[in-house]
Write a structure and sequence with these properties.
By secondary structure, the protein is mainly beta. Helix content is about 10%, strand content about 40%. Strands 1-3-8-6 form a 4-stranded antiparallel β-sheet, with no helix packed on it. Strands 2-10-9-5 form a 4-stranded mixed β-sheet, with no helix packed on it. It has a 4-stranded antiparallel β-sheet with strand order 11-13-18-16, with no helix packed on it.
């Protein structure tokens, strides 16, 4: 932030330099009546421009070593900040210093003199001695949110410039930058929704808006384009897929829900992206120039009706096992009212081909099922707003991912080519392992 402010200040200063220099250069070009199309009186710039060469030898600057030269901090309206500045006298004689505020004309907002106090108010600093100034900044409660820049000047020594400048450049000064801000009173959960929706199905998602402020805020959610999303969309979510149901206001110190219903047609497939602009009336929103947004990413899939098949060969009397697994990330099940029956499952059949004929399908029961749950304290990407399991305590434990696996065992198998058939339900991915022997 300090680096950014310094670049802005430098850019503004250089613009002034280039503009005035260009004007001075134009004034120095002789103009004739033919060039101007009429009579022109040209005012010489010699009266307002003093060259550095002429005054270099006569310059008499008071040399002070000031630390720090730049001070930046963030503060809320009504807040107070104190910092110390060390001023060392590099002259061979004592120097009188009396700090005061000089407003920078190119700042976003103007800093007021009554915000700043100095202790001591002035000081005579002996040669090679150091004077410490305690500077206190008090920001009034009604101060506008924004950036404020000013110089704290210790002596009136200015640097001579070979061109006209809009404000003096003080030699013995400190650049003070203040970001007057206030934290957002709004908490949104989640800020990103990743959902799996079966084609032809409807799902509901809930966005919680918590108002921590002392006054009610108005909201007006609408479907919009996500301006912050990086990269091209595979498909934009059509507006007709989404229905938003939300209150007009969120009361002070309370929580309200924005219900988003997604109705996906039968012929849809693939990935879709979109966002909900919440249009919250909050000063922090105005400060950053954008509305609160919740990005929505949908994976539209179809429940297969034909099983996946894989053949494998087994020798007489061998044992073999088949392990089938799948995983769900927390945000894949953010439609948090998900019932237990919608957990991933598999219809598994095993068949042995005998004498070149298709054998009878066998539907084995899994010999082992495993459910592995990953739990975080809300620090994972997007997970702090997702709850897949019932809370067991008041701690902020959140399920970030769940893995499911089923194991099928066949002992003393008949030799031949076996066919594994897997029909998944409520999942768009799975993997399997066939282990023979052992």
């Amino acid at each position: 932030m300090k680096k950014t402010i310094t670049l802005v200040v430098l850019a503004a200063f250089l613009m002034c330099v280039f503009s005035v220099t260009a004007i001075a250069a134009m004034d120095s070009v002789p103009m004739t009546e033919e060039m101007s199309g009429g009579h022109v009186e040209v005012m010489s710039n010699e009266s307002v421009v003093t060259t550095s060469e002429e005054n270099a030898e006569d310059a008499d600057y008071t040399k002070l070593q000031i630390s720090p030269r730049n001070e930046w901090f963030r503060i809320k309206p009504g807040g107070e900040k104190e910092f110390t500045v060390k001023v060392k006298n590099k002259e061979n004689e004592s120097v009188f210093t009396s700090p005061h505020l000089e407003t920078m004309l190119y700042g976003e907002y103007f800093m007021e003199e009554e915000w700043i106090t100095f202790e001591p108010g002035s000081a005579e600093i002996e040669s090679e001695e150091v004077q410490e100034y305690t500077i206190t900044v008090k920001i009034p409660e009604d101060t506008e949110i924004g950036d404020y820049i000013a110089q704290i000047v210790f002596t009136n020594d200015t640097i001579s410039m070979p061109y006209l400048v809009p404000f003096p450049t003080y030699l013995n000064s400190l650049m003070l930058s203040i970001d007057v801000w206030e934290p957002s009173k709004i908490v949104i959960q989640p800020r990103y929704i990743h959902g799996m929706v079966e084609a032809g199905q409807t799902k509901e998602y809930k966005i919680q808006i918590e108002n921590k402020g002392d006054e009610a805020i108005s909201i007006s959610p609408e479907i919009g384009e996500d301006e912050l999303w990086i990269g091209p969309y595979e498909n934009m979510i059509p507006n007709e897929w989404l229905t938003i149901d939300a209150p007009a206001t969120v009361d002070a110190n309370s929580t309200a829900a924005v219900n988003v219903t997604v109705d996906v047609p039968e012929d849809a497939k693939g990935g879709y992206e979109g966002c909900i602009k919440l249009n919250i009336d909050d000063s922090a929103t105005e400060r950053w120039g954008r509305d609160y947004e919740v990005h929505i990413s949908l994976e539209v899939w179809k429940q297969p009706t034909t099983a996946y098949q894989q053949n494998f060969t087994v020798k007489q009397g061998q044992n073999f096992s088949v392990v089938i697994s799948t995983s769900q990330r927390g945000y894949d099940k953010y439609d948090a009212e998900t019932e237990e029956t919608e957990e991933p499952s598999f219809n598994v059949t095993l068949a042995l081909a005998l004498a070149g004929l298709e054998g009878e399908d066998m539907t084995p029961e899994p010999s082992k099922t495993v459910k592995t749950v990953g739990v975080s304290l809300g620090s994972d990407y997007g997970m702090s707003y997702v709850q897949l399991e019932e809370e067991t305590s008041e701690e902020a434990y959140h399920v970030s991912h769940i893995e499911y696996s089923e194991t099928y065992m066949v002992t003393n198998a008949t030799a031949g080519v076996w066919t594994l058939k897997i029909l998944p339900k409520n999942t768009d991915n799975f993997e399997y392992t066939i282990e023979i022997g052992g």
